[in-house]
Design a protein that fits this description.
Structural class: alpha+beta
Radius of gyration: 31 Å
Mean pLDDT: 87
Distance between the termini: 81 Å
Largest sheet: 10 strands, mixed
Low-confidence stretches: 322-328, 434-440
Helix content: 40-55%
Number of strands: 21
Number of helices: 28
Length: 757
């Protein structure tokens, strides 16, 4: 009877002496002992082959096979032909694996009779191991998958991080392209597997160490120009030979595009123009054959493809910042990095005395470059750079301007004599905004220091007079759990439902025996009952973590929110487009993950956020008639009797042309604003349902001396967004400043700490 090992592991190698020992030792030390190791070496000349032969003598599970071709695909095919195991594994000769990798993958595969099991992995670079996910679609983990679910393509194409049924490989006659060298033939293997698999599983555990610090890796080669083109031609031929797989052609085109862009960035400059011409030729043919699905691409990518096809030469010039008329531009972010502010800031951040001393030289150099540019443009107007707004990556440029390098450099240029006194403030503001760093002071010390930084004076929080001082008084000295319950965007729904969905408002919901004291998980039924309240957006689902999100059960448009903080939201206007856009989806999930895992109290010490149980929830997306997110009406309620003492803050075009204005009860522009100047304000029409909005705000604010009630009015329907008890985290200046005291006078301060008694 022929011996059948549980896993056959192929190790293709060529001149890997620097890494091969760590690689082979990690395989031999596997806790799963019933394995065979097929080392397919392409006649290494650096000692790799001799070392492998020594291993072969020491362990009968390891077999050395010499390849007569220096081709990764050919070596892999030799290994597949020789393999006898139930499953096939792959380890690259410069990588290594955890000792339990194959035991765990085999265990999962056998328990569920799977053809393919893939897992997360680590990227090894500069001595650091970085945990990396197989897919950003968290809901694909730990369930049966197959080729019918094309979302599986939103996962890493790395073959080494899994095992594959050898029967499956042989049944579908899966073979690699035998082009010379290590020339991206793993793409073809991945694509053949993904288009034909019937039972696949993604495991959210990591075992494989993928080395990215090997300078000889093929991904760093500047000479391999057309290998990726040949590989995707191989994939296209494979699909054309199997008519039943024709639906995958647009996916092959999508990944061809991504790899072409990667290659264009990777290869030596002397090859770029010729590669762009090949790019244009290939994609012109793809368009003619209708192998491109526009819905898989971003609009900027489609424009880029069309531009390359239309004029490869112009695109090449565009890459090198030589502009011509009527072209599409990229490189706004790089333009920002070339500005003097960014350059000086990067020198400062380097903390290198040599570089800091060179700052005056950098200023002179920049001025010279600008003079040369101005002279060139004078004689050759077509070389004039376009406005940043004309670039397709303009939004990326705006983000670049927020970098600490730019901020520091800009401050030094504007205030060279006082710059040294501003460094601490700039650094603190940057960290508060981007890293949410919290200096571990006591709450009162932290808030006192922060108030000094923002408002420029030392306050007395125990005897507050201004609006912002009273907000901090509430944070420090009025710590009722009611504030926490109603700052929770989920529990707040129960309060709103109780107050607005009854003929007579019942404020006993705030008593000491209120159901609001229960845990979120105990309130599921009550929370979904709130969908009967016409003033609340529909609640679709509540999740403890990202893995629970099942997008198949959500409607086409929705918003994902975190309940315990500020800014934790992801707007989804088109679910299919959202799921297809790997970059947007990945960033959205990372954003939610970050918000879910932090305690918002740590940011500005707003005490009432400290003990909220963090959840993600899916809610109805409120779009206005123009299909944009609805404007926000924030009712600042100070006085339930005299309506003239209350103000409405209106926020419009939150994502395009942001504007914040304040109106009084008679819908006249108020003589103040939070943070923003009063000039050039576009007046906003009074909402049709203003009186009802005010009535709702008064009912919800009844138990409180001050609260901000956020409302929306899309399509003539009122919705409550949230209740806010510490507007702007007590850190928004009033413009003009005297209104901080005037609003403070309107607020008749009282404690709520005994409200539940």
């Amino acid at each position: 009877m022929n011996y059948i090992p549980k896993v056959s592991i192929i190790v293709p190698s060529l001149n890997s002496i620097a890494y091969i020992k760590e690689c082979i030792d990690s395989i031999l030390n596997q806790t799963l002992k019933d394995i065979e190791i097929l080392c397919i070496d392409a006649n290494s000349t650096d000692g790799t082959l001799e070392l492998l032969k020594d291993y072969e003598k020491q362990d009968k599970r390891l077999k050395v096979i010499i390849s007569d071709k220096k081709s990764y695909g050919y070596q892999m095919n030799l290994g597949i032909k020789e393999a006898k195991g139930e499953y096939l594994g792959i380890v690259e000769s410069d990588d290594y694996i955890k000792e339990n990798m194959y035991e765990r993958l085999y265990e999962v595969a056998k328990a569920q009779d799977l053809e393919v099991v893939k897992s997360d992995y680590y990227v090894v670079k500069d001595g650091e191991k970085i945990y990396t996910r197989l897919t950003h679609l968290y809901y694909l983990y730990n369930k049966f998958l197959c080729s019918d679910n094309k979302l599986i393509f939103h996962s890493q194409s790395i073959n080494q991080i899994g095992i594959y049924s050898l029967d499956f490989i042989k049944k579908y006659q899966i073979k690699l392209n035998e082009s010379l060298g290590a020339s991206y033939q793993d793409n073809g293997l991945w694509f053949q597997i993904y288009t034909q698999v019937n039972k696949m599983y993604f495991l959210n555990e990591a075992f494989y160490m993928l080395r990215r610090d090997n300078p000889n890796s093929s991904i760093y080669s500047k000479e391999k120009v057309y290998a990726i083109c040949e590989e995707y031609d191989y994939i296209r031929n494979f699909l054309n030979e199997k008519p039943e797989l024709n639906s995958f052609l647009p996916y092959a085109t999508f990944f061809r595009y991504r790899n072409y862009i990667f290659t264009l960035d990777r290869i030596d400059d002397k090859y770029k123009l010729d590669f762009i011409k090949r790019f244009a030729k290939d994609f012109k043919e793809i368009l003619e054959k209708n192998e491109l699905d526009f819905t898989l691409f971003e609009e900027s990518d489609i424009q880029k493809i069309k531009f390359i096809i239309k004029d490869p030469q112009a695109y090449y010039l565009n890459l090198n910042n030589v502009f011509a008329e009527n072209t599409i531009y990229f490189g706004a972010a790089q333009r920002i990095k070339s500005q003097l502010s960014y350059r000086i800031g990067s020198f400062l951040l380097s903390k290198s005395l040599t570089k800091i001393i060179k700052i005056p030289y950098e200023v002179v150099k920049y001025k010279f470059e600008k003079k040369v540019y101005d002279t060139l443009v004078k004689f050759y107007p077509h070389l004039k750079l376009p406005r940043l707004e004309e670039y397709l990556d303009y939004n990326e440029a705006l983000k670049t301007k927020e970098h600490l390098s730019y901020r520091l450099g800009n401050a030094l240029i504007k205030n060279p004599f006082t710059f040294i006194f501003k460094i601490k403030k700039i650094y603190r503001q940057y960290k508060n905004r981007f890293n949410f760093l919290n200096i571990r002071l006591e709450d009162n010390e932290f808030l006192l220091q922060r108030h000094r930084d923002i408002f420029g004076y030392t306050p007395d929080f125990k005897n507050p007079k201004t609006f912002n001082e009273k907000l901090i008084y509430r944070i420090l000295y009025d710590r009722s759990p009611i504030y926490s319950f109603l700052a929770d965007k989920l529990k707040m729904r129960i309060y709103v439902n109780e107050i607005l969905n009854r003929e007579k408002s019942n404020y006993s919901i705030l008593d000491k025996d209120s159901i609001l004291f229960k845990k979120i998980d105990e309130l599921q039924e009550e929370l979904f009952k709130t969908n009967s309240c016409k003033y609340l957006p529909k609640l679709y689902a509540i999740y403890k973590d990202l893995y629970e999100i099942d997008f198949s059960k959500l409607p086409n448009s929705f918003v994902l929110k975190t309940n315990h903080d500020c800014g934790g939201y992801v707007i989804v206007e088109n679910k299919q487009k959202f799921l297809r856009d790997t970059k947007v989806f990945s960033e959205a999930m990372e954003k939610l993950k970050k918000h879910l895992n932090w305690n918002y109290y740590d940011v500005f010490r707003e005490w009432h956020y400290k003990n909220i149980e963090p959840r993600i929830f899916a809610e109805e997306l409120l779009l206005a008639e123009n299909k944009k997110p609805a404007d926000t009406y924030k009712f600042h309620i100070f006085d339930k009797r005299n309506m003239l003492n209350n103000y409405i803050q209106v926020t419009t075009d939150r994502f395009d042309d942001y504007q914040r204005v304040i109106y009084d009860y008679n819908w006249k522009l108020a003589p103040f604003n939070f943070m923003y100047e009063l000039e050039n304000v576009n007046e906003i029409a009074k909402p049709e349902l203003f009186d009802l909005m005010m009535d709702i705000s008064l009912k919800l604010s009844h138990p409180f001396d001050y609260v901000r009630v956020d409302l929306y009015q899309p399509n003539k329907q009122i919705y409550i967004g949230e209740l806010t008890f510490t507007h702007g985290a007590a850190g928004e200046k009033l413009v003009p400043n005297k209104w901080d005291k005037k609003l403070g006078d309107l607020w008749k301060l009282k404690r709520l700490s005994d409200a539940t008694k």
